Amino acid sequence: MTVETQKETLGFQTEVKQLLNLMIHSLYSNKEIFLRELISNASDAEDKLRFAALKDDSLYEDDPELKIRLDYDSENNTVTLSDNGIGMSREDVIQNLGTIARSGTAEFLKQLSGDEKKDSKLIGQFGVGFYSSFIVADAVEVYTRRAGAPVEEGVHWESTGDGEFSIENVDLDERGTRIVLHLKDEAKEFADGFRLRNLVKKYSDHISFPVVMKSESGEEGEKGEDETVNDATALWTLSRSEIKDEEYKEFYKHISHDFEDPLTWSHNKVEGKLDYTSLLYIPGRAPFDLYNRDAPRGLKLYVQRVFIMDDAEQFLPLYLRFTKGVIDSNDLSLNISREILQNDSTVDSIRTAVTKRVLDMLSKLARKEPEQYQQFWNEFGTVIKEGPAEDFSNREKIGSLLRFASTHTGEETQNVSLDDYIARMKEGQNKIYYITADNFMAAKSSPHLEVFRKKGVEVLILTDRIDEWMMGYLTEYDGKQFQDVARGDLDLGDVETEEDKKHKEEAAEEHKDLLERIKTALGDRVQEVRVTNRLTDSPACLVVADYDMGAQMKKIMEAAGQKVPDSKPIFEINVDHPLVQRLEQEQGEERFGELSAVLLDQATLASGEQLPDPGAYVSRLNRLLLELAN
Questions:
Q1: pLDDT tens-digit readout, 482-526
Q2: Model confidence over 124-135: pLDDT tens digits?
Q3: Strands 480-484 and 431-436
């Protein structure tokens, strides 16, 4: 007997231990979901066998009728779920039942707070599948054999959820997987035919494989015979009029392993040049690995009702990676692979149509259910902001979906659309103004907004890390150009009166000597000194040149270890401010230099940036304070 076939006792991966601990202490108030999760896994195993058998039909082992069987034993207090799907080898069992084989596990566990209510939502997003057995069972046994493997390569896995599991090889005549749940005393209710039938109808009616139970009919000759409990019809193949909202919601939970209802969905059959059916869902909550761009994502792909792959990411751009659903095509070949999908013109056409469909769903949600759309935006807004760069052809559509904080509301919540902004534009205003900053308070109190407050012009406040990068691609919306209020020459259009423009020109000419003096004093710390039309209350501000990189973008590049191009700011001064007027009267060049440097440092701090030499700033300020005190 080899070591391979002996009984081994192994420990769960640390993450599983933590998860089981939460499970066993009855995290869910809704215990019955264990059955949905197990049937969903069994359905996936059947799908995988059917796909593998396209290339090798000997995997069916003379049993081509795929089904899921549900049995119970009320005397021994057990529930048994069997499938004749793909099954598992010994290595598969250790990998799948001893670890959580999904990226981002560590991130997920960091977010577990110990607060049962919050944690249950997290686990709901995580989709823990098999481990939900331990909500109702104090011991679980799994018998499994991979399709095509010899009878003696069956595996028996067993655990009481206490941190360890045992595994040994056994002879199994039938391929597939059989899970035996030894129910806890408080879960005896599930060892009942009527209760199990109701749960199958409630949660798994849409599973496209028959879920079979022994008949309990009182009529003679029928009792004990097999009967199919669910409809066993692929939900997306039915017409919309035949499907209830509840069925749509349950199907979403089956494919996404989410425990919450979706926000909205769209079910469409396309015939003509292309022949495919799509059923797409927008989730209500972001999964914990949303920002891990390598995490599994994509739609379930079927070809002529045959399951092909789980995460077909070729049908949607990356910025819509939160979308869940099914694509069933009649045009693709059954032996398609991920590589072929990359270069298939049919896939490109479906992708274009499905992308448009998702954007239309979101537009409709924003129009008809603004509160629900706001919920969506709070969860997925940052991902949508990747859109303008990734999907040039739909830029206008994506623009209409964006939401921003704004000086109009004065609140941090991003709830102002570009259409709202345009509707409120001042007469003579022809640009959409925005400001980027590290945080909302820094942006809201920025000196760059002073002239906009005075003129009553609304400014969008952008504080997400992705914002400055996004605005590099979102140059206009509805024919209106965007302008960063802290970049280049400020063009206020007709909002600025002729008198304002004349005053600026005259001031620049009148104070020419002062500007040159400040430039000489500050040397290469600034690239230019000029009179401002931005300020009403502050003495000075910093402006980024038209083609230079903004502060937010510099920080992102530096954090990623990228070399940042060296650039100097433009220093704008408010010649009507008493401090600047006092500076102009200063005769001593040393003191003039000190005051100019203090003004520059203050402008740097007001723009939310850090000083290159904070110590020097403090020393200068202290010297000036002492002089004033004396």
A1: 999 998 888 888 877 888 888 888 888 999 999 999 999 999 899
A2: 444 467 888 888
A3: parallel
Q: CA nearest 23: which of 164, 161, 118?
A: 161
Nearest residue to 413 (alpha-carbon basis) of 378, 362, 385: 378
Phi, psi (rounded to 5 degrees) for 386: -75, -15
- Reference 142, options 83, 65, 67, 64; nearest CA is 83
**Residue showing tokens 């799907």:** 85
Which range, of 232-241, 253-262, 266-275, 289-298, averages the lowest pLDDT? Answer: 289-298
> How far apart, in Å, are the Cα atoms of 168 and each of 14, 156, 175?
22, 5, 16
HSE toward the beta carbon, residue 548, CA cutoff 13 A: 18
Rounded CA separation 21/25 (Å): 6
Residue 524 DSSP symbol: G
Cα distances (angstroms) measured from residue 217 to each of 79, 192, 194, 227, 232: 20, 14, 11, 10, 20
175 pLDDT above the threshold of 50: yes
Distances, alpha carbon 12 to alpha carbons 90, 125, 384, in Å:
15, 22, 38
Tell me which residue of 147, 133, 131 sits closest to 47, measured CA to CA.
Answer: 147
**Continuous segment of H or E residues that includes residue 181:** strand 176-183
**Rounded-to-integer distance, Cα 462 and Cα 454, Å:** 21
Q: What is the DSSP string of 349-395?
A: HHHHHHHHHHHHHHHHHHHH-HHHHHHHHHHHHHHHTTHHHH-GGGH
C-alpha distances (whole Å) from 624 to each of 460, 541, 591, 601 are 37, 21, 9, 14
Ramachandran angles phi, psi of 524, nearest 5°: -85, 15
Residue from 216, 211, 255, 186 nearest 32 by CA = 186
CA gap 338, 355 in Å, rounded: 19
Amino acid at 532: T
Spell 380-402 as b/e; 16+ CB within 10 A means b: bbbbbbbbbbebeebbebbbbbb
Q: Alpha-carbon distance 133 to 519, whole Å?
A: 73
The model's pTM: 0.76
| 264-270: strand order across its sheet | 264-270, 276-282, 324-329, 299-303, 306-312
Strands 324-329 and 299-303: parallel
- From the list 199, 158, 180, 160, the residue with the least C-alpha distance to 35 is 199
Q: Under a CB-based contact definition with an 8 Å cutoff, are residues 30 and 136 in contact?
A: no
Residues comprising the chain, all counted: 630
C-alpha radius of gyration, the chain, whole number:
32
Separation CA 265–CA 245 (nearest Å): 10
480/611 Cα distance (integer angstroms): 35
Contact (Cβ atoms closer than 8 angstroms) between residue 352 and residue 413 = no
Q: What is the DSSP letter of 36?
A: H
338: part of which helix (H) or strand (E)? helix 338-342
Q: How far is CA 276 from CA 268, 304, 329, 352, in A?
A: 9, 9, 4, 13
The band of 118, judged by pLDDT with boundaries at 50, 70 and 90, is low
